[in-house]
Amino acid sequence: MPFLRILLLRLLTTAITLAGVAVIVFFVIRVVPGNPIAMMLPPGATEADIARLSALYGLDKPLVAQFGIWLAGVVQGDFGTSITTRQPVLDLVLGRLPATLELSIMALVMACLLGGVAALTGTRFRGGRTEGAIDVANGMALSVPDFLWGLVLILLFGVLVPVFHISGRVTPSMDLPFATNFYLFESLIRLRFDLWADIVAHMFMPALALAIPLAAIIGQLLKQSLKETMNLDYVTLARTKGYGESRVILREALRNAALPTLTLVGVQFTFLIGGTVIIERLFSYEGLGNMAIDAVINRDLPLIQGIVILFAVIFTAVNLIVDLLYTVLNPRLRHG
Amino acid sequence: MSFLSIRNLSVRLKKGPPLLRRVSLEVAAGEVRGLVGESGAGKSMIGKAVLGILPPSVEVTEGEILLDGVDLLRLPIAERRRRIGASAALIPQDPLTALNPSHRIGPQITDRLVDILGWTRADAEARARALLAEVQIPDPDRVLRSYPHELSGGMRQRVLIASAFAAEPKLIVADEPTTALDVTVQKQILKLIAGMQARHGTALLFVTHDLGVVSKVCQKLSVLYAGMVVEDTSVADFFAAPRHPYSAALLAATPKYTDPSAGLQPVPDTVIATVQAEVAAFDRGTARG
Amino acid sequence: MAEAKPIDGRSLIRRRAGARLWLSAGWLTLLCAVALLAPWIAPKDPLAQDLFLGRLPPFWVQGTEPGYWLGTDSLGRDVLSRILHGARVALAVALVAGTITCLVGATLGLMAGFLRGWVDMVISRLIDIWMAFPPVLFSILLIAVLGPGLWSIIIAIVVIDWTRFARVIRAEAMAQGAMDYVASARVAGRGRIGTMLREILPNVLPTIVVLLTLEMGIAVIVEAILSFVNLSISTDDPTWGGMIAEGRTSVHQAWWVLVFPLITLFLTVLSFSQLGEGLKDRFDPVLR
Question: Residue B22: what pLDDT?
């Protein structure tokens, strides 16, 4: 029962946070100079035209009233209509969401693999030049943000040695038999491996750019955690049983060392998702982040709101999942 | 022919002071030898050297460790671990840290049987159950399914003892197995270890600072001071008439429950001086040689 | 059960920390000098366009004009001069935005961590809400609100990144506040604010300094990203981010327009970060 109470408390704080986000973004963007309506209409538009269109979007009402209307809509699932494309915000946003999700998750998997391998290799070959080299690489990866790694990757593997694609989700000439926007996932399910390979070739570099800083954090933290765990008595005992060093690291130490890393990775994963905004722009990847930048430039208020709220929901959801996962994986917490 | 034969083992901190000074001792098959000494005398270090788990900050400078005739120190690491795993085991000191908190008890006993010795899971689990019954754990099935944190310290030590005997080793190193336990539990655990040793016929290297324990369980003993073997004798001879003044002082220092008013007798300074002189002489000898 | 570390290892660590510190400090000092002296040491006018000299490669490539050491961009502007001038914007943003963010964030963090109570509750709640925004999006939004310009960027950075300081300093202040020396100060009669400033602040100062160098690196990046999406300063003054944006579009024809500002940006961000790491090692009492 205490578990349920904690869950409810978390949901409450989450709701307050989301409400706060909604309020802030709503009022901040209403202060934006530049009338979006005026930007949309052709140059010869009259004051009357502007006024009519503004009334249509409810932009002539007092701020608080606008918020109330928007909130009422949200509760019913209506997030308003995009000013630039005239389509429902919810549809637009959910349409682009799969692309960003796929990119983020691919980056997460890459980061875990890279960081995990770095940490395990550094532990297996402790004290030698291998560990030193890994530390240096780690330090550099940690200090440089995803934006710069993206640019470096574009230069290296897009221009110098053109292996991967540096823009878009998929080669435009290919036919797309997809029902959803989960290109990567669906292409696998439909067994269209040619498509899948093409999509991966497009996603590889943006995902890697996002992954590198997170991989460095995972690598560093996990290595430190492993170092401490390897000193513990149960690991020593395992050695006397006849297990080789690699086996000892993987079997005995890894699970216990990985657990504390988990919570930090969760927080850092939300930063990674935030990074998709600029990385998608850099690689012309048709995801949520890219759409967000355009929305801001075009002053598309309802769309901006929708996207920011969605990001906030994703962030809080990730945090919640990480906390739940931690409770499930730690046997001590499970039995209370 | 001894099962374990340590000859002139010297160990030191890397580029630092010596920790073991030409230690020699023998343990015959099925025999129980005690390793006694004060804290820091190096008794644990000997056990660790035999089992191949010396800390990375420490190095062996000379000597041999013959396990069933094969010198462990001359083997490549993988081969060494395999040999040790096959014929030796450890009963660790602290039951609260010696079990992996993420794994259930069952796998921690059966893992070496299945992974290294190639037993089937069913056979291994049957053996685990039998061993738990032997260490007098009620409801072995429940314990096999439990996580370490669900058991008391005493229970965990029983599990560790059972686990040590799992692969039917020819030698067990018991590293102060009762030190971390409540006094009330110590006696039971001691009887348990002694009983299992007798039944399985395993050779036992028993590290302890408690002479009372030695008198109950061991047949032979080695007294250590500052990494040097000061006396090597049978338990009977030791308690009757110790040869070295340090041994005599240790015996005298043991509180006598039969005579509480006798007070505590620390090791006299003269004895300490004597034994430290011996150590210094040893160091001069090795420095020259 | 700590193992004794051989004496060599420790001096090795100190040596490595030293090298890192000097290298990064060296680069940053060079950058400051360049930024200050740019108008005098830049070989060409950074704004001067000459379409006949467009897309000239760097000096070591055959067939380029002398004097344009790192080549020119599509409009014939000298890349090297633009990089030198771009350093001015980058460093100005780094120093000003970094410092102000530090002041705001550290103050709020100190208050939350030490004064506790409803102050802590409000500030913590604010931090949670803030962390729910994707930072880049938030900054772009703010620039759209504030309009382009140097001060807009600085304000945007402060508004977005104060949480970085607040969280860490709050945790440290809480830890310090529980210690005995604080209780002694209170018993001796110091007021709460006084205790906060006189007793706790000096002890969290090392952390603040390390975070400050980190923040400066972040400020440079944020400015670069903003100029990349064309939302940075309003004038035509060159910025590294702007150069990178241009370079990105013509990367196949004139790679140098992207590469050189990228290298400069890379080294600068790396230096700020390693400076922080190096200082952290210096401050760490274990290594001292």
Answer: 92
How many CA atoms lie within 13 Å of B198's alpha carbon, on the beta-carbon side?
Answer: 10
Closest Cα in chain B, distance from residue A326 (Å): 13
**CATH superfamily, region B4-288:** P-loop containing nucleotide triphosphate hydrolases (3.40.50.300)
Could you tell me the residue range of the domain that residue C211 belongs to? 17-45+70-283
Domain assignment present for residue C3? The answer is no
Q: Which of A131, A232, A240 should one mutate to test binding to chain B, selecting the residue with the greatest count of B CBs within 10 A?
A: A240
Q: Which residue in this structure is represented by tokens 């040790």?
A: B84
Do β-strands B171-175 and B88-91 pair in parallel, antiparallel, or remain unpaired? parallel
Residues of B with Cβ-Cβ distance to C2 under 8 angstroms: none
By CB atoms closer than 10 A (0-12, 13-18, 19+), residue A300 is: buried
Three-state helix/strand/coil letters over A241-252: CCCCHHHHHHHH
Give the C-alpha separation, A75 to B266, whole Å.
Answer: 81
What CATH number corresponds to the domain at position C196? 1.10.3720.10
Mind listing the pLDDT tens digit for each residue in C144-202?
Answer: 777 788 888 899 899 888 998 898 888 888 888 777 777 787 777 777 777 777 777 77
Structural domain contains residue C93? yes
- The per-residue pLDDT for range A276-333, each reduced to its tens digit, is 999 999 999 999 999 999 988 888 888 888 898 888 888 888 888 888 888 777 766 6
| Angle subtended at Cα C140 by Cα C139 and Cα C142, rounded to the nearest 5 degrees | 65
User: CB-based contacts of C264: which residues, under 8 Å, 6+ apart?
Assistant: C83, C86, C87, C240
CA A90 – CA C281 distance, rounded (Å): 49
Residue A34 main-chain phi, psi, to 5 deg: 95, 110
Mean per-residue pLDDT for C235-257?
86
Alpha carbon distance B91, C90 (integer Å): 63
3-state SS class at B224: strand
3-state helix, strand, coil in chain A (%, to 5): 75, 0, 25
Q: Widest CA span of chain C, in angstroms?
A: 78
DSSP state of C199: I
Work out the minimum CA distance from A240 to partner chain B, whole angstroms.
6
In sign, the C-alpha dihedral spanning A292, A294, A298, A302 is negative
ipTM of the complex, rounded to two decimals: 0.89
Burial of A177 (0-12, 13-18, 19+ CB in 10 A): exposed
Could you tell me which chains touch chain B, where touching means 3 or more CB pairs under 8 A? A, C
Tell me if C103 is assigned to some domain: yes
Report the number of distinct structural domains present in chain C: 1
C-alpha C130/C-alpha B62 separation (Å) is 63
Nearest chain A residue to C130 by CA: give it: A21
Alpha-carbon A25 to chain mean position: 20
Asked if the structure places residue C38 within a domain, the reply is yes
| Chain B residue at shortest CA distance from C3 | B57
Burial class (CB in 10 A: 0-12, 13-18, 19+), C171: middle
Burial of B21 (0-12, 13-18, 19+ CB in 10 A): buried
pTM of the model: 0.83
Check: CB of residue A212 under 8 Å from CB of residue A252: no
Cα diameter, chain B: 61
What strand order describes the sheet that includes B18-28?
B18-28, B2-13, B58-67, B70-71
Distance, CA of A147 to chain centre: 14
Provide the pairing of β-strand B220-225 with B32-36. parallel
Q: Which amino acid is at C220?
A: V
Chain A residue with minimal CA distance to B110? A241
| Distance in Å, alpha carbon of A329 to nearest chain B alpha carbon | 9
